[in-house]
Design goal:
The structure is a single chain. By secondary structure, the protein is of the alpha/beta class. It has two domains: 108 residues, Aspartate Aminotransferase, domain 1, CATH 3.90.1150; 233 residues, Type I PLP-dependent aspartate aminotransferase-like (Major domain) (Aspartate Aminotransferase, domain 2, 3-Layer(aba) Sandwich). The protein is built from nine helices and 14 strands. The strands form four sheets. It has a seven-stranded mixed beta sheet, sandwiched between helices. The structure holds pyridoxal-5'-phosphate. The site of pyridoxal-5'-phosphate has 11 residues, from helix 3.
């Protein structure tokens, strides 16, 4: 039976990226050695690292003055690294869900936080004003758990904008020049777990007075390529994923497919009498599509979950905070998988 991977992360990767990684684990760049057993300082891996940085720049059209870093520690370490490196006194955090809240919790250790929050996490806060004395403003562009997404590149004038893009990086074009720092865990749209990316604009650094431990210091990583041993295997897979994105129309191509896929599923959620979406329409994520059983059908939740799984649809269980279902429809998920889910939803409706 064909299986369809709707897991929220780690999650589906392009098959060519998986295949190339398997090959490299057997014989990396014709060295006769495995990717798992070669020095990160070898000329062969050096080339992978540099090419991955260059493909980031090319695909996202990153201007001069930024460095792409490949780090460890997950997006969760960035929650602390960002304030450690750039907060002098005060920052503004847009609290749009669990991850945004965790980022804010870390930042509170470094200074005063102004919080912006909507009355519910099923919609995004709108038209907010950020205090002029904020050192930066932090947003989470895609809220993996609640299924909301900020599509616009926000502009707060001279206040640096920092974005956690763990779950929507490379899903659409972004104007990097609007951001001071973009970071994320790579284990959704890019690579296996273990890799963190950070795109850092140099001019936001060097303004704090306290000392920063080397491993947490962006400047150290910028000045010393591979300051320590990086996650070699995920970086290799990331490069292969980036090549696949390029071959499939770049981020514009990804965006087009992501619009089509998400529309297909949201249309079915809105049409089907058994299901209802959890997010206000204008804020619906294209990456994590959340839905629950409609009124009168709640008792069938378990049954639908089991039915979907029996049809090879994996990873659909919603996060415990939202309940119901979450279909993660990252770049590498083909439209056929979304169609398979829609077909199963229709079949389920016909039975009830
Ligand atoms: N931020 C967002 C938006 C996420 O979805 C996640 C994980 O799912 C994280 C941060 C945490 O990432 P990590 O596990 O890499 O620390």
């Amino acid at each position: 039976m064909k299986v369809h991977n709707f897991y929220a992360g780690p999650s589906i990767l392009p098959q060519p990226a998986i295949d190339a990684t398997i090959e490299a684990l057997k014989n990396f760049a014709n060295t006769g050695l495995s990717l798992a057993e070669i020095s990160h300082r070898s000329k062969e891996f050096d080339a992978v690292y540099i090419q991955a940085q260059e493909m980031f720049k090319e695909l996202l059209n990153i201007p001069e003055g930024y460095t792409v870093l490949f780090l460890g520690g997950g997006a969760s370490l960035q929650f602390a690294m960002v304030p450690f490196n750039i907060m002098r006194k005060k920052a503004t955090y847009v609290n749009t869900g669990v991850w945004a809240e965790k980022a804010m919790k870390e930042a509170k250790m470094f200074g005063e936080i102004e919080e912006i929050k909507a009355t519910t996490f099923h919609a995004l806060p709108k038209n907010y004003i950020v205090s002029d004395d904020s050192d930066y403003i932090h947003i989470t562009t895609n809220n993996t758990i609640y299924g909301t997404e900020i599509f616009e590149d926000l502009d707060f004038g001279s206040i640096p904008l920092v974005a956690d893009m763990s779950s929507d990086i490379f899903s659409r074009p972004i104007d990097v020049s609007k951001y001071a720092i973009v970071y994320g865990g790579a284990q959704k749209n890019l690579a296996p777990a273990g890799l963190t990316f950070a795109i850092v604009r140099h001019d936001v650094l060097g303004k704090v007075e306290h000392k920063i431990p080397s491993m947490l210091n962006y400047k150290i990583h910028i000045d010393n390529m591979m300051y320590n041993t990086p996650p070699v295997i995920p970086i290799f897979t990331a490069l292969e994923t980036l090549k696949w994105i390029k071959a499939n129309g770049g981020v514009k191509g990804m965006e087009k497919q992501n619009i089509e896929k998400s529309q297909l599923l949201y249309d079915e959620i809105d049409r089907n009498k058994c299901f209802v979406g959890t997010v206000v329409k204008e804020d619906r994520s294209r990456m994590n599509i959340c839905f629950v059983m409609a009124e009168g059908y709640q008792e069938f939740e378990k049954e639908f979950g089991a039915f979907a799984e029996s049809k090879g649809l994996l990873g659909l269980k919603g996060h415990r905070l939202v309940g119901g279902f979450r279909a993660s429809t990252y770049n590498a998920l083909p439209k056929e998988s979304v169609q398979a889910l829609v077909d199963v939803m229709k079949e389920f409706e016909a039975k009830h």
